[in-house]
Amino acid sequence: MRIKMSAVATATAMFLGTLSTAANANLVITEYIEGSSSNKALEISNVGNSTLDLDANVYKLTLFSNGKTEPGNTEMLTGTLAPGKSIVFHNSGAADAFKVGNASTITYFNGDDALVLTKDDAVIDRFGKLGEDPGSAWTDPNNADFSSANKTLRRKASVTTGDTDAAAVFPTGDQWLVFDTDTSDGLGCAGESACSAEATPGLLLITEYIEGSSSNKAIEISNVGGTAIDLDANVYKLTLFGNGKTEPGNTETLSGTLEPGKSLVFHNSGAADAFKVGNASTVTYFNGDDALVLTKDDVVIDRFGKRGEDPGSAWTDPNDANFSTANKTLRRKNSVTAGDTVAEADFPGANNQWVVFDVDTSDGLGCTGESACDGSVTPPEPEPETGPCTNCETLTPVADPTTFNGEIYYSDVLSGDFANADELKNALSIIIAKDHKYLTYKQVWSTLTYADQDPTNDKNVIEIYTGNSISKYDNQTSGSGAGKWNREHVWAKSHGFPSDSQWGYTDAHHLRPSDPGINTARSNNDFGACRDTGEEVLFNGVGTGNYLDKTTDCWEPRDEVKGDVARMIMYMDTRYQGTDTATTNMPDLVAVDRLTTTAEDSEPLIGTLCTLYAWNKLDAVDTYEQNRNNQVYKYQGNRNPFIDRPELVQQVYGAACGDDPNPGLIVEGDIVTPESVTEESAYTIDASAVTAGEGVTLTYKWEQIVGEEKLLVGDKAILSLTAPMVKADETLNFTLTISNGTLETTKAVSLIVTNVPLTLDISFSGNTLVTEGDKTSITATVADAPEGTSYSWKQVSGNTAVFTGTGLTLDVTSPSVSIDQVLVFELTATVGEESLSESVSIEVKNTEEPGWTKPDGAGSLGGLMTLLLPLMWWRRRQG
């Protein structure tokens, strides 16, 4: 354990600041109850003559447990406190007689714990001695009846200023009256006597308003008075006035009896489960610019917003930049004891009555007060047929883990040949995606009751970060999370899949039961090694072994689940490769070897990969995790391969984290390669500068890659070859495998072979002017023709002639022609795979028919005959 401070005086100075007896003489601790079981309460009263504005300064009540000097559970005091009035905090597990005021973890004390009341960090009162553990209780040598354990203690009426020396001996003087254990009749009023039996009348107020994201909307109405209200004795209505209208909109009529301290809640039917407290109602069809009015027999008794005004998007407060009626949860201050009865007055007005919480805060629904609900209202014990947990369904299995055969399930991987870790990872992704059945977020509740069942108690589940065993039926379906469990997304859902329509959101392989408070503390932080820089997270005042570094947004889970966390993150990184996005609506999730930044909160990234890799080794797969894998498989249909086959972690992630399962030879130096060579020219590729350390002898194997084949072409450091002839520029690819006899590494080398176009000097000789029907020979001459050159002839235009082409000689019999015509022949010379063509033309003369005389062209008739001659000639020839 790390000790931050050892001296009580130092601790008091650092945490509490300068001691001041004049900080506030009116606010004191007036009653302390440490009774049987959870019957614990603490009362603070204004014993002065003027009202205290608790918001004008920072008033805190802090618990210091078992002699510690580090602050524990803390309550901030807010609102106003009239003279003679009291604030009471009670333990959520106390008997009803002690449930005055608000439930608070500040009451997690026993007789050996200290409580300190401060104003702006200056001590104004205390109970117990800071930095001392008295054993079981503080006692008074001058009063044998005095004890801080199993007693009720009330401050004497003569005490009007606090005890400001938190490190002094306790008790100081004779300030406390002692009452028997479990005496509760003085809670809620200052003074030495029991409170008056005369109860204040019932008072109906709007105590909570939620306008959150999407349909997360709710409104709470509470009886903050001292007697029950018969809602049927009068007409009580809650009415919505939308967008500045004065005509009533959706309305709820209240009925039944509302006991003191009890609440009615109306929620939007489309809200998330956490907001579904009470009854669904259309009165929640509001946005930040709509007004709500509570009436009794049509007389306004309270309101929210200003009726008849549309403020735009929301009502705001110029004195409180955080206040807004849109995207916020607002709770009525404890100090408000009367309704706001002028519905047309400015809102929230000069005296803002509301405490502001972040958007989508739901843990205060169902109970009065500024704090989260205490969970003391136990949900009805579900009937067996309702399912494995509260409001859960019984799932139908989709797979049978008793018949699972890993050799078959992973056969494509076990028999596969993968060039690298990414190929193996992709193959695993295909396997575990194949039979994956999408679960609804509600079905996840049921799945976790099977997967995370306590091995020693089949009615409980185990929370991931606390290790606490808790009833399956204590799942947090609404209201406060105190004493409940909820669903922790180990891969934070904001990192890539914020919607429950995305498969990763409901993938049970990374969802685990968790204490809501610890879940909130973890938030969406990355995983990393931050034990030395963070603070240990407490659960019920006790360290959990989880550490949070708020500066770097780093979360380090307890040692017992570090391997579980690692294998869940690796599963998500492998399952969601972005290849089946059309089905899963999921991006490619990537585990990175660093802590992500705040700007990357919505990106599909999470860290820290190699820390997780180390945790996987530290915390090996156990039977609990194996059973969990089987149960998720039973209801979701797919498995976590890193639980079934732990060796796959190294195969997939080892190389990235310095633990390569197939390590390669480390070499230095460059391979000298020409950028290009001309076809048929000699070249060398030189690897002689590559070394693997002084005195290490290396061997070489050069292979040329041709298509899918590898051809061995050399075994020396220097490769000498001649470039082939190519039709066009072509890239040659080689691999060089370098070995020291034990390890090896492979280098890729490529170079371009440049094509040299074929050129030939071709000329023709022979008679190229003939009469139709005549024969002629044409001879081609090719200067400096390469050996092996072949030749071919073809006619490319003109009337088809009879010809033969042998080598360089062309013999042609000219065809009959109607008019003079040119025949074109082409000689193609081929060398290897290249060719070159040249053409030669032969002119063929037409022979006139016997008996035909050219007409005289004089005169108009002669001119006409001249025009008609071609046509007549053609017809004559055709005849």
TrEMBL record:
Keyword line: Endonuclease, Hydrolase, Nuclease, Signal
Residues spanning the signal sequence: 1-25
Molecular functions per Gene Ontology: endonuclease activity
Sequence ranges assigned to domain LTD in this UniProt record: 17-163, 191-381
Taxonomic superkingdom: Bacteria
Pfam families: Endonuclease_1, LTD
InterPro entries with a match to the protein in the record: Endonuclease-I, GlyGly_CTERM, His-Me_finger_sf, Lamin_tail_dom
NCBIfam families per the UniProt record, alphabetical: GlyGly_CTERM
Assigned protein family: Belongs to the EndA/NucM nuclease family.
Protein name: Endonuclease
Species this protein is from: Shewanella schlegeliana
